[in-house]
Amino acid sequence: MSKINFSVKRIDLIIILISSVMMFIVLNLPFKSKPFGDIVFHEEAKNLAFYLKGDVGYDKVMITKAPGPILFYTPAYLMAPSGATDNQLWVYGVVFTFMITTLSLLLIFRIGTSFFSKEVGLLSVLMFFIFPIHIYYSLGIIAEAPAFFSLALALYGWSIAFHSPTKKAGWIWLTLGIWFLILNRPNTVLLLGLGFLIILYSFFQHKDFFKIYGKKLAISFLSVGFMGFGILQLAKEISKTKSNNNQEGYFYYVAHQGRFQFREEPTDFRFWESDIRPDSKDYQNWRKNGDALGIIMAKTNRTFNDVFREFLINDVFEHPFWFTRQFFVKCFYGHVYFINSVKPEKFHLGPIHGVWGYWFIILLINSINIIIIFGALLFLFKEKNLITYWPFWGVIIALLLFHGLTYMEPRYIFPSRVALYLMSAAGLYRIGWIQRKVNYISKFVFSINTQTH
Asked: pLDDT tens digit string along 91-144?
């Protein structure tokens, strides 16, 4: 553990300054994330904000998907004037998201410093600036940014709780972070199950860990479960008479997509949209199967959930090879990036343009990505006390399991990059020449009067 007795203000100012520059650069790139995502989070946060202002009636208030993004963007929309347009609300939302994302980087530096050293904390932040995917996702009204912040808050809480288990603050931040992470990405609920397995494992194999943290972790997990269940039930109650959409139905819809993703085309990494892959065999079969299931619903008068659930279960047993291959391809796909907002032949970035320019940028981006993953793997293989870092690798396993078994997009794995970059920085710092480079940069960032033990 590194004693933070250097000037924290200096590194904070550097992070804020570089983040601002990176935001300006990414804002002016020819490719961007969708401003409003799939529009649902924006519309529902807007209606909630307008309802609280008295501009619309309660009948407009709905929470049909994950409630976290609604709770996240509503405060930003409340700051906007009444009658604000969608574009004006987007500005308020993006400014708020940028501030929260920058705060996340400040927390990431402190996490790295607490568990490893100030140099590792610095390296983890530098890696985000080398590959600023966090800025890219900050430009959309989507779940990725609030989920990213949630995990940073949870890991920050664990960094306090681990080193000072008697302090309530650490356990509170850990609990709130995991809770809000699940509200933004309900698929991360698997982290709770994994957490209880870790408690059970520590009871038999790591008595010291269990004695210090076991009961407190159990209380945190149970608190998250109760609070999460309460919010999800409240969201269901608010929307039940106003919309036919719900979390369960959305899950089956997405899982149905996943049964055809990389099914017979395991190397087709194009985004799952009709205007991008209309000639895709898997995409066409997904549409045909959805129509066929719709006919079954009409003939048998069974519900959407019942018919789709039955198909999903039967399909796994009927096609075990496809199911297994799809799982591993999805796990790989979740860690690579492609630019889907512009076609390769229309790509243009300064002097780099056209198909060759497009694939050059894709190769560059994913080369950086491979180095980051290599650093994390190096850390996992070299670290002997992995139970200490359970939320770091636990959240990655939880997301890979869920989306490997259902439907995968790289953005679904994005929140786990908080943990991935921290582990990668710790792993890469073990390499001599990288350590020397980081130590050299550190001389210009930190005060000389630092002490590590």
From this structure: 999 999 999 999 999 999 999 999 999 999 999 999 999 888 888 888 889 999
On the 0-12 / 13-18 / 19+ scale of CB atoms within 10 A, 95 is middle
| Cα separations in angstroms, 98 against 90, 138, 147, 329, 432 | 12, 6, 13, 32, 34
Nearest to 144 by CA among 153, 134, 154, 152: 134
At 251, is the secondary structure helix, strand, or coil? helix
* Cα–Cα distance measured from residue 23 to residue 104, given in angstroms and rounded to the nearest whole number: 15
CB 153 within 8 A of CB 107: yes
Q: What are phi and psi of 294, to 5 degrees?
A: -65, -35
CA distance 211 to 387: 14
Residue 103 burial (CB count, 10 A): 16
User: In Å, how far from its chain's centre is CA 125?
Assistant: 17
- Beta partners for 353? 348
Cβ atoms of 2 and 118 within 8 Å: the answer is: yes
Rounded to whole angstroms, the Cα distance separating 167 from 278 reads: 56
Task: Please give the full DSSP string across 312-354, using - where no structure is assigned.
Answer: HHHHHHH-HHHHHHHHHHHHHHTT-----SS-GGG-EETTEEH
pLDDT, tens digit, for every residue of 56-79? 888 889 988 889 999 999 999 999
Tally of CB atoms within 10 A around 42: 23
Q: How many CB atoms lie within 10 A of CB 408?
A: 27
Please list, in sequence order, all residues whose beta carbon lies within 8 angstroms of the beta carbon of residue 326, skipping any fewer than 6 positions away.
Answer: 258, 259, 261, 262, 263, 266, 404
Neighbouring residues of 131: CB distance < 8 A, sequence distance ≥ 6: 365, 368, 369, 372
For residues 379 and 424, the answer to whether their CB atoms sit within 8 Å is yes
User: Using an 8 Å Cβ cutoff, are 80 and 53 in contact?
Assistant: no
